[in-house]
Design brief:
This protein is of the alpha+beta class and about 525 residues long. Helix content is about 60%, strand content about 5%. The chain has a four-stranded antiparallel beta sheet. A two-stranded antiparallel sheet has the order 1-2. Strands 3-4 form a two-stranded antiparallel ribbon. α1 packs antiparallel against α2 and α11 crosses α12. It is globular, with a radius of gyration of 24 Å.
Length: about 525
């Protein structure tokens, strides 16, 4: 069980790199849409010039091209996340595996006489990937080949030969293994994928038939798994695979909620965003719910501690509301009042359920900045964003009332309500110094992680330092908290140290010492 949890956490972490790129792509699509949207010209005169509109279409459509090749991005990105060493070589081998895999599948279909004519490819469940006709696996092809590459790379990249065979050591030996494995995988998936596709389609229909209740369960699971780091495994299939819907946009078939609405943003023929956008409506709790929870915690703080509580809660609430990074505020109450986190997960599901019930089509995965850039240029017809705000205000009221009631009813020790002998935690000196000075910080973190010899892999996501260690018992939590950590989560041999938005500097400080 422990090994399974470790493997799932490592795999979930590996998805983070490719997933992190997509919102940036979305911003470029949104910016291109602002420039190329002729309907805005009556408000901003310069947008009426053909050169400006052409530039907008150039930016938007160029960015959309990444969505068509998303499988390749995952095939390259996942090995980077999984590799314990020489991540650049792992990425290169991920690309090699993907190219060999799709061509092996193409040759297999050709030898079997199953390649469909161009006008019948979609009906036959086939598509073109990098100019090669294969079965329509979507992003699953990249996830499968990327995970396989990462596993083989970690297992065999340390193999060393001597003498004349030394040239075939390390990543060269991995290449020798990967080529026949990728060919075999392409042949096998040519036979197995049609069965898997039918299973996925059936599951997608079951989820769709569950209606708003299914959306609520999805929202609850996505939040409740945040402390474990496994929430990536919940939302990724809905955002990038057929589970999140399939839609033809401007003549191209897209799968996954995020891929669909990004493509629809850049397609002027689309008059209203698809209902599949509900699977990425996680921003309701980020923009409205958690700021309300922070307000409830501030209002219930002891009078003499309100200033200290404000210093912690305001930055955390703004981070959640503006850019959609929730962990700083979630971890403000997770460790002292776990019940509140469960309630938060339930309310997240309710918010997404209301999104579905009110038939909202606006884009709101993160914070206010993304919300404005994505939705306002589309207009209220294509993106009925005012209804998103209505749902958000309902959730703000629910969060505030429920959190305030629970905190007072059960005397929860949220920030500002600690016992007299405890101090309300402010940002530490080390956190402040970490913004511009990492002197000694990396060594301190390494010491808290049990020393250099105890560390196997170091990585990070938005707010957490993610470390695989040999012996979790050697972790020194007080030492880590002295470096500015807001919380430490242990799952098997995986340790997640919550620092906040400056976590990248923490990782770089550690890597510089290692």
């Amino acid at each position: 069980m422990k090994r399974a949890v470790n493997a799932l956490q490592n795999f979930g972490k590996s998805l983070y790199g490719p997933v992190l790129i997509l919102p940036i792509v979305g911003l470029f699509i949104a910016f291109g849409n602002v420039l190329g949207n002729g309907s805005l010209a009556e408000y901003i005169h310069i947008l009426g010039y053909p050169a400006v509109q052409n530039l907008g279409q150039l930016i938007a459509k160029s960015a959309v091209s990444l969505l068509v090749n998303l499988a390749m991005i995952f095939a390259v990105g996942i090995p980077i996340g999984l590799a314990a060493r020489d991540k650049g070589y792992a990425a290169l081998l991920g690309l090699v595996t993907f190219i060999v895999f799709i061509n092996a599948m193409n040759v297999t279909l050709q030898l079997q006489g199953e390649l469909a004519p161009a006008d019948q490819m979609r009906t036959a469940g086939q598509s073109m990937v990098l100019g090669v006709q294969v079965l329509e696996m979507g992003v699953f092809a990249g996830i499968l080949t990327g995970a396989l590459t990462g596993y083989l790379y970690n297992r065999y990249s340390g193999v060393q030969f001597s003498g004349a065979m030394a040239i075939y050591s390390g990543h060269c030996f991995v290449t020798i293994i990967i080529l026949p494995v990728a060919i075999t995988l392409g042949v096998v998936m040519s036979e197995l994928w049609p069965w898997a596709q039918r299973g996925i389609s059936t599951l997608a229909l079951v989820i769709k038939d569950s209606g708003s209740f299914g959306v609520a369960i999805y929202g609850f699971l996505e939040r409740i798994l945040v402390p474990t780091g496994l929430h990536h495994l919940v939302y990724t299939p809905f955002l990038y695979t057929e589970l999140g819907g399939s839609q033809e946009v401007c003549g191209t078939l897209y799968q996954g909620a995020r891929n669909i609405y990004f493509a629809e943003m850049a397609c002027h023929n689309v008059t209203q965003l698809s209902s599949t956008v509900v699977w990425d409506a996680r921003g309701i709790s980020k923009m409205f719910g958690l700021p309300a929870a922070a307000l409830a915690m501030y209002m219930t703080a002891k009078p003499e501690r309100k200033a200290a509580a404000k210093a912690i809660l305001i930055p955390a609430a703004l981070t959640s509301m503006l850019v959609g990074v929730t962990e700083p505020i979630e971890f403000s109450f997770l460790f002292v009042a776990p019940l509140l986190f469960v309630v938060h997960a339930v309310l997240t599901g309710i918010g997404m359920m209301l999104f579905s019930i009110f038939d909202v089509h606006a884009i709101g995965a993160n914070g206010i900045i993304d919300f404005i850039l994505y939705n306002l240029p589309l207009g209220t017809a294509k993106s009925n964003w005012p209804m998103y705000i209505v749902v958000g205000l309902i959730m703000f009221a629910l969060y505030f009332v429920i959190f305030r009631f629970l905190i007072l009813r059960f005397d929860m020790k949220t920030p500002g309500r600690e016992d007299d002998d405890q101090q309300t935690k402010l940002f530490s000196k080390q956190e402040y110094q970490a913004k511009g000075n990492n002197d000694g910080l990396g060594a301190s973190i390494i010491e808290g992680l049990g020393g250099r010899s105890n560390i196997e892999v170091v990585d990070n996501c938005y707010t957490r330092l993610r470390v695989t260690v040999k012996d979790v018992a050697q972790i020194n939590e007080p030492q880590l908290k002295a470096t500015g950590a807001k919380g430490i989560i242990k799952q098997g041999n995986n340790v997640q140290v919550v620092y906040g938005l400056h976590v990248k500097k923490m990782r770089e400080a550690v890597e510089a010492v290692l």
